[in-house]
Amino acid sequence: MDLSKILSISGKGGLFKVVSQSKNAVIVESLVDKKRFPAFGHERMSSLEEISIFTTGDDRPLKEVMKAFFDKLEGKAALDPKSADKDLVQKFGEIVPDYDTDRVYVSDIRKVFAWYNLLLSNDLLDFSEETSEEKKEETVDQETTEEPIAEKPKKKATAPKAKNTGE
What we know:
Layout: E1 6-9, E2 16-21, E3 25-30, E4 36-40, E5 45-47, E6 52-53, E7 60-61, H1 62-72, H2 85-95, H3 106-121, H4 128-145
Antiparallel strand pairs: 1-2, 1-5, 2-3, 3-4, 6-7
Helix pairs in contact: 2-3
């Protein structure tokens, strides 16, 4: 799942997929209605790859949160983001139990639910490539740690020999 090509644009509802780049704009396509338009540099755009959720420990990247949603809901749609606040907060707490209740607002939780449902409906939540990348990293780690490389013994430093001039 590559969230670096999925954008959230401030002032515009929904999510947008990067289609192309022009000289001074990014051409994006709405995931809601599939309309394409240019997004200019003065608009605040955030890649979903850069977004994370505040937790009591380290912040969790949105990708991990989406995977937790997918696993907990077994690949099905989440609650409607227009549901009651207490229902959304309760469900979000079940999925991300360590989220920071002081810094994560209900509006943020609504966005996560809406984004999850939107990504799911557009078949953009594919976690299979992630597991194959993890396996590749494990095999590389195993290959590098199997046999240590033997070091050559170091030579002792010796003092230079004095030249005998014969005098």
